[in-house]
Amino acid sequence: MDEYVLKLYVTGRTPRSERAINSLRGICETELAGRYVLVVVDVLEQPALAEDERILATPTLVKELPPPLRRMIGDLSDKEKVLLGLDLQPRD
To answer: What pTM was estimated for this model as a whole?
Structure first.
């Protein structure tokens, strides 16, 4: 099974950022337990990382591995869209 490498870019500790972090962690624990690495990048604290990745809006999720690279923008509260973006089928 593939290991997923995910980067979530957020702006500060806003309610929208917290919602995206919590939504993504919940989905990862349910669907990818033990098979993912999640890095949360605050663009206020590390603007160079966001610039290098050409992050224009937050929250933005970047799926680096497994290929193909994918990007999703928003609070990640729609589980079905997140699963589709990660190329996953929900567990039954």
So the answer is: 0.90
